[in-house]
Amino acid sequence: MKAKRLSKKLHALIVVAAMIVAQLAAVLPTSAASNVLPVAQYVTQVGSSTGGAGGNSSTYNGTVKLKIPMSKVLEPNETEMANAAANGLYPHGREGKNRIAYIEYNVTFPEDVNLGNISVANSVSYINSNRIVKTVNGRTVNFKMYLNDVNWQGIYNAYLADKANPNAHTVDISIPYSVTANDKASAARMEGERIVGKGDFSFYPSGFLALIGSGLETYNTDVASVGFTSNLTQYFPQDLTTTGDLEGDILVGNETEHSAVYEAQKDDTIDFTGNLNVKPIKDELTRLENQFNGAVAAGINVENIDTTFNASIELPSGMKFKDANPTVQLLGANGKFEITNSSLNGNKVDVTIKLKNSNNIRTYNELKSAVSAVDDNLKVVVKGAQFTSAATADTNYTVIGKVSGSFKAKATNTVSNKVINFNYAWNGKQSAAGSDATNPSDLSRISFTLKYKQAPTVVTDVRDLEGDILIGNETEHNQVYVTGRNDTHEVTGLLRVKPVKDQMTQIENHYSNPIANQISLDGVDTTFTASLELPNEMTFGSGTPSATLEGGNNVFKITDVTRTGNKVVVTIKLVKTYTNYEDLARDIRSVSDDLKVKVGGVKFTNAAFVNTNYTMKGEVGGVFKAKATHIPSGKVVNFNLKWNGKQTADGADAIAPTDLSKITFTLKYAPETTPVTPVKPNKPAKLSKVVKTGDTSDVLLYMLIMGGAVAGVAGAAGLKRREER
Question: Which sequence ranges are marked TM in the entry (predicted)?
Fold first, then answer.
């Protein structure tokens, strides 16, 4: 009997097991639980950020939105639902037998989130709108979306109906939230964090399995991941640091010393100008403006402005500043920048320049207006540099300039509260256009090289050249010249220049004549004035008499003749402008030994008395100036020569034959009834005096003296003597 009862129990268990297996096989295939429910694509996030006052915080206000077309989500498991419906099964839920199943979904936020009022709406036919349960557990929001409490056939029928237009049948969930970052690091962390959503749909295939809590079938969703925040860090102060170069140069006046080393004089006092191109600073303000996306019109406040230039000019050994506190001048700032400090340290002047009244600048527009008013090139002039006694001629001396600085400011957009801390640092760099002639390719340092030439030799000399007054060939040396009462005379002024020509030849022979083409002339200025003055009882007639020059050979010419009363003044100059000694020497040699200036129309007036001596007076003067440079050595001699005519001994006035200090000619007229024929005495032999050359090594002096003396020939034309008996 016991064996029979045991056999019946075993048979019952086998039957139950078979029934369970049959139910499972009828409802689900073996691959059912592997189908993932596609929910992630229906999870989105939107939001915006705002900044706190002063750039100390930023807040993000966002919303997670789920708009789930449930028929599309369950579509991968449509076959399983159809089988369950065909077998008359009921979706027993996780909560147990005969407790309807639900779809569960969790949305998990990062830390520090503040959740708002969550809203849920449902238009899915087989979801119970009254049983969508939301629960907030810390950072996670849990949703349980219960099916309608019907068997699978009812669920399946509703599913098929919604499937015809799935987007019109959705579960809509909105989760508003906010988060505030109180520092830039927190803001950066939050920008990188994600909101995660995931869930599942679980049910028991049969009431029996639900009863015993076994065989729960779970279909997991895919994992949704959306951004938590964005643009939070922008409201915290951003440190924008840029390093660049500004082009600079050193000048003396407008000279950059780019093409050749600058030449100064040993005793010059030199003002050095440091030039800095500040246009990139102006461009930096434009970059600042662009950081705010053109919101300048809405208002940008600026503070903590520090715009500083540090410049220095250092002299080399062999130079110095003459003052203990050299004068420093700022140009091009137009009142917007100022020198706040300058000091001399050794041989270096340090200068600090700052934006003027920067503490009073409150807005971007004020800052831009101030900086834009400055010239593109700021110039610092340091005055009073000199060569020391230890400096040597024709030696290069290089002045070094340095410049550096920064532009700092805190800029705040008053609308968005966005803050940027600007720090623009730069160093000076030699401009290519002004680079040092001694090393034009080196732009790494700002420099200016100069030297001085040996000081020119200055030669000043005053000399006499012999002259005379004649009528025809008569010198009036032996006796007073006698003429007729109504005679008209042409008076000749004579200057003997042969000694000068002889002197030139002697100098050139001493040097074997190698120098003619090695000496340049500059600034040659030769001006001679000669005058002839008649006594009151004589006249030139009406108007200004004509004057002619003989013996000049087109080297000299008369440039002007003027008459004032009884005095005629004749101006004589060189015809050409000379730039080298060779041309001058050649032309001087072509001049006659005697130069003659002739003035016509001289006669007695009705006031003259018979047998009365009348003395004509002549005067001559002139200067010869020139800069002569010996080309091979660079040696410069500046000549300033002056000469006066002196009466020749053999033509001295008969009434004062020993007085050679004045050039005169005395004449009278005889009674008309007693014609007088002037005696023409034999003239003594001409004196020939060789001018001493002095130190023949200074050839430049004598070359120019000769040139001047020759020109003086013309001046002697107006020689005169005034003593009367």
Answer: 699-719
